[in-house]
Amino acid sequence: MKIAMIGTGYVGLVSGVCFSDFGHDVVCVDKMPEKIAMLERGEVPIYEPGLDALMARNVEAGRLSFTTDLAAAVDGADAVFIAVGTPTRRGDGHADLTYVMAAAEEVARALTGYAVIVTKSTVPVGTNRRVKQTVAKANPQAEFDVASNPEFLREGAAIEDFMKPDRVVVGVQSERAQEVMADIYRPLFLREFPIVYTDLESAEMIKYAANAFLATKISFINEIAGLCERVGADVKEVARGMGLDGRIGNKFLHAGPGYGGSCFPKDTSALARIGQEHAVPQTIVETVIRVNECVKARMIDKLREMCGDSFNGRTVAVLGVTFKPNTDDMRDAPALTIVPALVGGGAKVRVVDPQGRREGEALLPGVVWCDDPYKAAHKADLLVILTEWNEFRALDLKKLARKMAAPRMADLRNIYSARDARRAGFEAYEGVGR
Asked: Most buried residue, 51, 76, 299, 414, by CB count within 10 Å?
């Protein structure tokens, strides 16, 4: 199959590379010449473990290429995937569909034969029908179908998720479109991974509902963590006891400083807005959003208390600023709320992150970037663990404590235990919900 992938952001690039590894002929399109030039040099503009090697292999095999020429990429394509950004629209919380509709119009003008136009971007219910109307208006002679194929990729494990998915969701309106999508995903079908075919609206809703449910689990355990701190319970034990119930499961029950990233904040906001527009308020989702903001504020209060009720004049070492490990993504990371509060309160902040500096330098002004935790901890008054990178899971706690002016640890990911920290020489240790 010949596939055109419009957009080389996180979703578009990972999907395009993985489709080419299935054996399809894939052309990835982007309007930014410098980005295409970078990809053609074999450089990956995002950090995703294993993506560079997989991309190089398929480029060498002749199945994967990059271009700024959308018309050339669409010409003769069996399927055209739209994988452009849908950021939160300023002012109302809805998903901004400007880029999706602009791409649909451009694709319409470039069509030379039948193709399935597939929306890979996360879009509100009804968007695929709007795409169909937009394409038909821009090119009344076009022969096409539309399909909804939302992505469910976890940053840091995207290739594994694409190659071994829990399920693939495909919303279609015709048998012909379903046949094309079946051919595209045949390698997964042959390995018996579930492929769910449904209508357009259901496919669009599945994506939002799934992400909102996962965000709900995170906010739920974070609220429970706050209660655990007051009553003397340990949220890790509580989460373990809950997670062993097969109806609940243990995933996304890890207390911390709140969710972030490219999906949960944006998608919960959009789903809440969709509910408001249709007079069916999503009260649980709206509460989840509020709880997540309150959790970040609670973390700031925790840190301030550990600094003697004032950040002014304190030196704070922060380990990890990306929203999760194994990514360079800073979008809506808790660090973007917590670190500015430290700096704004008068603290001298040193930051360590294996991949976060490229984006973080612009997003976190006023901090000092260090290469390793021990340098960051030198004469510090507080050590804060914000992201659970593997590099931070086996630190020499005794060495860290010796280097600090006041050995205090705020472990906002519950990597260590209070007992281990105190044995290593930390005078104070605070986790989340413990």
From this structure: 299
Close Cβ partners of 373 (under 8 Å, ≥ 6 residues apart): 317, 319, 352, 383, 391, 392, 395, 400
Q: Per-residue b/e over 318-334, b at no fewer than 16 CB within 10 Å?
A: bbbbbbbbbbbbbbbbb
Query: What token pair was written down for 59?
Result: 């480029």
pLDDT at 91 over 80: no
pLDDT reported for residue 90: 73
Residues 185 and 168: their CA atoms lie apart, in Å, by: 9
- Cα separation, 263 vs 259, whole angstroms: 10
Ordered DSSP codes for 146-211: EEE----PPTTSHHHHHHS-S-EEEE-SSHHHHHHHHHHTHHHHHTT--EEEE-HHHHHHHHHHHH
Picking from 388, 409, 269, the residue whose alpha carbon sits closest to that of residue 323 is: 388
DSSP annotation of 89: P
Per-residue pLDDT tens over the stretch 341-358? 999 999 999 999 999 999
Catalytic annotation, pick one of 28, 228, 263, 307: 263
| Closest listed residue to residue 338, CA positions, set 385, 406, 291, 380 | 385
Q: Is 23 left (phi over 0), alpha (psi -120 to 50) or beta?
A: left
Fold of the CATH domain 2-198: Rossmann fold (3.40.50)
For 57, the enclosing helix (H) or strand (E) is helix 51-60
Phi-psi region of 337 (alpha: psi -120 to 50; beta: other; left: phi over 0): alpha
Average the pLDDT over 399-412 and give the result. Answer: 97
The C-alpha atoms of residue 13 and residue 16 are separated, in whole angstroms, by 5
The enclosing H or E element of 299 equals helix 283-306
Q: For this structure, is 307 an active site residue?
A: no
Residues linked to residue 163 through DSSP beta bridges, in sequence order:
none
CA distance 80 to 242: 43
Which one has a higher pLDDT value, 90 or 103? 103
